[in-house]
Amino acid sequence: MAYSVFDPSQFLAIAPEIGLMLWALVILALDMVSGRRIPRRTLGVLAAAGMAGVLFLSLLIATPPQIVVPELGSDPRSVLGGMIRHDLFAFVFRIIFIAAGILTCLVSIDFRPLRAAGEYYALLILSTMAMGLMAASNDLIMLYLATEASSFALYLLAGFMRDTPRSAEAGIKYFVFGAAASTVMLYGLALLFGLSGGQTGYAAVAQLLAGADTRMAAVLAVLLIIVGFAFKTSAVPFHFWTPDVYEGAPTPFVGFLSTASKAAGFAILMRFLLYVFEPPFSQAAVVWVQLMQPLAILTMFLGNLLAITQSSIKRMLAYSSIAQAGYMLIGVTAFGFAYSRQAPEAAADAAAAVIFYAATYMLTNIAAFAVVSIVSQRVGSEQISAFNGLARRAPYLALGMTAAMLSLLGAPPLVGFVGKLFLFRAAIADSLVMLVVVGVLNVLISVFYYLGIVRAMYVERSSDDPLPLPTPTATGWVVLLSSTAILFITVASTQFWGIAVDAAKALLN
Amino acid sequence: MNFSIPVLTLIMLAPVIGAALILLVPRERTDIIKTLAASAFAVSLALSFFVFVGYDRAVGGFQFTEKVSWIPELGIGYHVAVDGFSAPMLLLTAIVAFCAVLVSWRLDDRPREFFSFLLMLVAGVFGAFMSLDIFLFLIFYELVLFPVYVLIAGWGSKNREYAAMKLTIYLFVGSLVAIVGLLVVYFQAGATFDFVELQKGVLALSPEQFEQIKPWFIAIFIGFGVLASIWPLHNWSPDGYAAAPTAVSMLHGGVLKATGAYAALRFGVQLMPEAAQYYLPVIVFLCLANVIYAGLIAFRQTDLKYIIGFSSVAHLGLVLLGIASLNELGLNGAGLELFAGGVMTGLMFALVGMIYERAHLRDIEELNGMFRVMPLAAVGFVIGSLAAMGMPGLPGFPAEVMIFMGLWRAAETPSLIFPGQLNWWYSWIAIAGVLTVVITAAWTLRVAYKVYFSEPKNLELQALPGLDALEKFSIVFMSAVLIIVGVMPNTVMQVIQVGVQTILASLSRASG
Question: What is the mean pLDDT of residues A482-504?
């Protein structure tokens, strides 16, 4: 533990968070000093540029140390009193969060219902910052604080359009459900805190758990904590908030909520599972896996089956995002299982599959919500029928949406296929054949609603059919950028997979 | 033979480069655009002819191999090669594509977009025929679906959006079903998409392991069979062709469907020969339904494009019957039928397009006396019909004789699905299948008489302009290919035979 010497260079571990924090304050200050006269557009570009700057600087100076085999007792990656773990795993997730933040800022520029925008961007940046801390947290207290900090910003953002009742409802609903889930999780954390005799660092908790005969209590703690994680990733049965919140919240923000927040949930889930249940105590991890497998199956089925029945595009994408979380849970299950049977290579593969999928899902889903944001504003409806005849009204937008839908579905040339293949392969390596069968079955179910959108855009006609539907510049760029990135990742899968594996190994060692 | 020049990649890239260049040409310079498209295909045609001739028949196996690692973690690579079965398919694609551009020369609706999509489509077909990596194959497959959709929805005739979407959804879902089957094989047999490696993996499986993946052969065969318009999943095909612009009908009916049969053979039969011997004697009834059912409908239709569309369904049925016989004669016949039928369907759709473009009529009751307007087209139609009904001297004859002989012989093989029996019903299938000759003769004669050789009643039709030089050239070119292959079937057969030997080897290994 690094209590003894305080080394200022340790602040590099949270340099991205410091940068984001400062930038959020700058945005707020600018908005206030100017007397709210800076237009939404300028603020959005500033916010995005600032986040890009932070990302760039972090890549330059704050990359984590490369350590293959840590020396016992003094791991230089455990910094700031053991609160934070400065490793590639956290860093890769940070990149995912910040990229999601940048894209969301750009989409928000063109979202008119957001009037007072200063706080919106500041909150978005703050939430991104807290997610970075979530991914890096190495301590029960840090975990809880970071999760809450990010959630509070998200609650406010969900209810940001105050004069729209549905948005306010979304904010309240999200807050009430979130607070309940977080309380339950806190009970679990408190239980662990008690079991470990007041220690809060993951490693210390793990050591004490391994020594004591506390299996029942630990299982109970796991059950309680899983509620919090399941809420974050909107896994069944803690998904209830998802469709309502997605439907009411500002559309560009939903793109952020459905990707970055979900990825953050998976980051804490994997790190917690791994660090608190060290191999001698991995019996509890087996329990965890037995929990995860039905959770994954339920999440996939429920998400896909209910998505078919939706008529609102945002609700449909909400259920689709539940289903996508189900696919990622396949990877998490495989990860936990491989870990509990002490197969680090397989565990690294599974964790890398989750990271890879989370990153590509982020790009794809943000592109989809960007298109939804434009179409629902221009057509004035959030029904799937708003997409009728889009191929004739805005061919490039329709093309981008088609690519996003097919990638979410997992059609071969697109990155969704590669990502699902990595997940399924990890499950097969752990002989979790059942999960793969269910996964493939679900992909086939999802054909109905993903192709339903494509059909609406290309076959149906709308009443104002020939009228072109102009695409705003910034959102157009986001769609173009994320589609290009999706294609690029497909072509360079090996390179990106390599990064994901390195990140997973950093988590494991 | 190992060539230092990546010939196969060049065949596939020539249209891609052509499409890119076309996008640089100003919109108004349509002559440059069309010349570029034609020259891109000419390059592909020359190169695929070179591959066809240069394929070493004595050596056999996969040649002109190019292999580059891509995503090794998932066993995905860029692996292209041809064997005796796919080399003629590349040549077929190039012939039909080249002629498709020539007959589309008069197109003046957004030619820049039309020709660049057409080039992309053909690049995808080339890629599908040459890829030995299943992932790569799927990429090319989807790469084809997209331009086909755009071309039909954007340049088609009546009902085009409906037909385009119907076609796309059928083919897309079919491919998904095939992918699921392939994924099962992938996970069971070594986690590689490389066909050669995967084949080894399947061979190395224990009988119990193989039993687990065996039923998935049905998913693969039927999934790809959708693209080959296997009955009763053929419905997209006549609708799609009726709505599609001429060039797309030619390519889709002549070549793209062949991709489906090819994939069912390569990734179904050749990958899991034991499963093929188990299930195909049952699936064969679907293929028979193709031949008889579609043939009868073709006879009843009056819309020229529907007639040719259903006849192409019937012709693919013959190919599938040949594959289902699983012996040397039948497979050889299927290969020749794919090649000959492809050229024939291309020719027929081109002829229909020439009439429709001038008269804006496709109903055979309204057309008459076209022989006087376009005598060469009538000659081309007669050659095509004779090839379709299996007239000696044209390639349909050897192909159909071999297919029916193959079916007859297959009746003597022991049945796996009903142990202790022979596959005796194959002889009845052969007998029923021969009916197709009669059916084809009936509809072709009816069309030839009504459209071309009947008394001219409609004087407006007689005033239509005749064929231009490019159209004449493409008719002569495709007819010449038919006649050459018909008179000397060995030109193509020798190569196909080499490919069939490889498939037979894996089949006998499975039963032995």
Answer: 89
User: What is the number of other CB atoms lying within 10 angstroms of the CB of residue A248?
Assistant: 23
Cα gap B395→B412, rounded to integer Å: 27
If you ran DSSP here, which 8-state letter would residue A472 be given? P
CB atoms within 10 A of CB A296: 28
User: How would DSSP label each residue in B411-423?
Assistant: TTSBPSSSTT-B-
Residue A92 has pLDDT above 90, yes or no: yes
Collect the ranges in chain B with pLDDT lower than 70. Answer: 1-4, 510-512
Restricting to B residues 78-117, those with a Cβ less than 8 Å away from any Cβ of A are: none
Angle at which helices B304-325 and B328-359 cross, to 10°: 170
B173/A412 Cβ within 8 A: no
In a mutational test of the B interface, the residue from A330, A433, A455, A494 whose CB has the highest number of chain B CBs within 10 Å is: A494
Q: Does B73 touch chain A (CB under 8 A)?
A: yes
Fill in the DSSP letter of residue B374: -
Contact of A421 with A328, CB cutoff 8 Å:
no
Residue found under tokens 């497979």: B331
Q: What is the pLDDT of residue A401?
A: 92
User: For A257-275, what is each residue's pLDDT tens digit?
Assistant: 999 999 999 999 888 888 8
**Backbone torsions φ then ψ of A200, nearest 5 degrees:** -120, -20
Does A22 have pLDDT greater than 90? yes
Peptide bond preceding A237: is omega within 30 degrees of 0, i.e. cis?
yes
- Spatial CA neighbour of A456 closest among B30, B430, B161: B161
Q: How far is the alpha carbon of B54 from chain A, nearest alpha carbon, in Å?
A: 32
Encoded amino acid at A209, one letter: L
Residues A412, B138: C-beta atoms closer than 8 Å: yes
